[in-house]
């Protein structure tokens, strides 16, 4: 942490050091002046009253100045540490954010080792202490330690071995207790995955999305119980270490008392033998008291350990998540022709899973054409989309974009050429304009484009109905804001993907784009499908055959392999798996029980 300070601000570091040294030396100077005062007063009879008065006045002024300096320098040191600490905390937060957003893929978000690092780097489980807190605590402890050394230096003028013995004794006692605190902290930080569990339960109870189920299923007491169970498991290591070290504090106190007693005995004996004047005795005794007062352990030690613990984890996170390379901040797409995509002998298995989703998978996606992917749950449709959009890398085989392997041409650049409605698309708690405009963030001001894309996605009527139109805040968590229905959000997500296409994206991915739409909206989307996919290469995933039948080509996926491929008419004529699935769905609308089929 200290090594990172000069790059924050050299003048602030200079001010901090100056204030620390000043604040540490001032009390020692006061102790010396006190001793002198005692000598001057007791020697007044010998040296004359006038001379003593002069001395006393001078020492009084010096003591007042020293006191003032001490009062001023401690807050100055704290302010300097605070300012440096704020900069450091901000820089580390930025680095965690940059590291988390660095990779082009999303696989790291499912890797428990990386999640452990993210948890630690964000300071979870550290009682909320930041590097700023750690730095302020370091300044406090720094003053104390410097003061201890200065006190020891003063005692050394009397007997160097006494100073050394006191310093070493107090040092050993303090180090022992600090090490004990550290063990406790490491016991806690060694279990980030366990810490995430109570955090999950606590955060879950606050999620508006979970509120309904918590009430309907009566989960309140269970959540409470579960949180405490998980918390006990997570904290067990820390508590055990605290229990093991419970005798340490009384031992430390006894140790400090014994050292003090010994020190005073040595001083007292010297004074009684006439080897020490009353003034010197006062000064050394003051130094001895000062030395023992600043030793020991305070909450500052905990703040240093916990607040600075994130720093090595931030470094480890940066090493674990190398950025996506030169294309990590890829430029905006510039349009151009629609791409061809080819999966060549692609094999892919999710991290931690034994079963591969794809092994030796081949697929061609033609330029400017629409491809629909159908198949039962778990067939691999969404995984196909994740591979296609570079969220995961295949373990073997290649994905070629216009003949160039994706791994070579740059995933970030490719991702910017994609407009997508993912199955789990985002509800941005922002304005309607932002919700659509974030499809091409460089063109947020393109109001005509926003309107056009909303229109094509069937969202115009919905936006017109909002109190403040495009500027309406789409979240009930903000004053004047409001939430939307599932289908309304889905239309905005489609408008967002179309806005990306308007501004240069050339691959359109639609993963279940109609799952929340009503019958009328779905029919409108189907009618517009050809115009929506015009000029782009598109991949559509849907369980609704009324939508997929519009695609130029349909592939049926089963267990990660292409079972059938062809146009709707060809596949129906072939009378295979596709035809069977199509008939089941069609029968639900046309058969005797079709009355309830509108939701089918
Ligand atoms: N993040 C993940 N980690 C591990 N396994 C996963 C993950 N996501 C999906 N799977 C597994 O991969 C297989 C393919 O899942 P995928 O989501 O691609 O299926 P799908 O065809 O899109 O299904 P659905 O129609 O239900 O959306 C399934 O066995 C699933 O359990």
From TrEMBL:
Transmembrane segments: 55-77, 161-179, 247-269
GO molecular function: ATP binding; ATP hydrolysis activity; ATPase-coupled lipid transmembrane transporter activity
Bilayer topology: Multi-pass membrane protein
ABC transporter domain mapped to chain residues: 341-584
Keyword Disulfide bond appears in the UniProt entry: no
GO CC field: plasma membrane
Record's protein name: Putative ABC transporter ATP-binding protein
Species, as recorded: Actinacidiphila reveromycinica
